[in-house]
From TrEMBL:
Name the record gives this protein: Carbohydrate ABC transporter permease
Family statement drawn from the similarity comment of this UniProt entry: Belongs to the binding-protein-dependent transport system permease family.
Principal location class: membrane
Entries under PROSITE patterns matching the protein: ABC_TM1
Keywords: Cell membrane, Membrane, Transmembrane, Transmembrane helix, Transport
Residue ranges crossing the lipid bilayer per the database entry: 21-43, 79-102, 114-134, 146-166, 187-209, 268-287
Pfam family, one: BPD_transp_1
UniProt cross-references to CDD domains, sorted A to Z: TM_PBP2
Source organism: Saccharibacillus brassicae
Length: 302
């Protein structure tokens, strides 16, 4: 048997390959440069940072900026609260959204259409900021940790996304399980959830990023309760203190400004930005492998 002939690339193919490599390289540079620039400034000596001209490598390498930041106890406390709300908020959101989505995906659920329509309406109609604040006050959620978790337990968009994925699963799996004596809770926990890993990983990332980056709810509901401050809220105060010279009582950042006068405002902003960004960058690769659908392909042949 004769060996297959080698593929001879035409001139047009070579030009396309070169253009594709150049284009993707430019995209990579544009994507990575802002992060590398922030990292370089955060690792550069503050007295040298004010001169400007730093690109992707620090001129005078130092960890002083990070050491100064973590001397401020508000950031450490905010970091732990942010981690706690991210973990608990993500778990609660996943469980509640998946359970409701499973109920709505059942063809025998009589109120399926009405409940789905009601959820969609909540995505377009809101009570407004003041009614929500009054509601949280009447529920005694102000000044507590649960004001971060309970209001986001059920998200209409997440429920619809998970339900759409469940609708694509073979219903014969549930029927077979029922014939074997499994109840609805067993079917949900041992059959549906394992098959929904891709969509659950996606929703988990959405929830985790939303919880981690949120600061406005801290400003509204826990601004007077420093024990429940978050890292993002402390970052906001740092940014405002650097822009206003640290002299505004409305942001309660006087102590922070006094502790950070020895480093430049630019170093403060960049170092804290890295501290806030790195945890999400660490988590993302572990969830990326689940961003592929079709795990039930061939599971049931009808």
């Amino acid at each position: 048997m004769a060996a297959p002939k080698a593929f001879n690339a035409t001139r047009g193919d070579k030009i396309f390959d070169v253009a594709n490599i150049v284009f993707m390289s430019l995209v990579l540079i544009v994507t990575l440069y802002p992060f590398l620039n922030v990292l370089a400034i955060s690792l550069n000596e503050s007295s040298d940072t004010v001169k400007g001209g730093i690109t992707i490598l620090p001129r005078v390498f130092t960890f002083e900026n990070y050491q100064q930041i973590f001397q401020y106890e508000g950031l450490i406390r905010g970091l732990w609260v942010s981690i706690l709300r991210t973990v608990i908020g993500t778990l609660f959101g996943l469980v509640s959204a998946s359970m409701l989505a499973y109920t709505l995906s059942r063809p025998d659920f009589q109120a399926r259409k009405f409940t789905s329509t009601f959820l969609v309406v909540t995505m377009y109609v809101s009570g407004g900021l003041i009614p929500v604040y009054i509601l949280f006050r009447d529920l005694d959620l102000l000044g507590t940790f649960w004001v971060y978790v309970l209001p986001t337990v059920v998200n209409a968009f997440n429920v619809i996304v998970i339900r759409s994925f469940m609708d694509g699963l073979p219903y014969a799996l549930q029927e077979s399980a029922k014939l074997d004596g499994a109840n609805d809770l067993t079917i949900y926990w041992k059959i549906i959830l394992p098959l929904c890993k891709p969509v659950l990983a996606t929703i988990a990332l959405f929830l985790a990023v939303g919880q981690w980056n949120s600061w406005f709810d801290t400003y509204l509901y826990n601004g007077r309760h420093p024990e429940w401050t978050t890292l993002q809220y402390e970052l906001m105060k740092v940014l405002q203190s650097t822009q206003q010279g640290g002299s505004g009582q409305q942001i309660n950042a006087n102590d922070m400004a006094q502790k950070m006068t020895q480093i430049s405002p630019e170093s403060i902003k960049m170092a804290i930005t890295i501290v806030v960004t790195v945890p999400i960058l660490i988590v993302y690769p572990f969830l990326q492998k689940y961003f592929v659908s079709g795990m039930t392909l061939g599971a049931v042949k009808s």
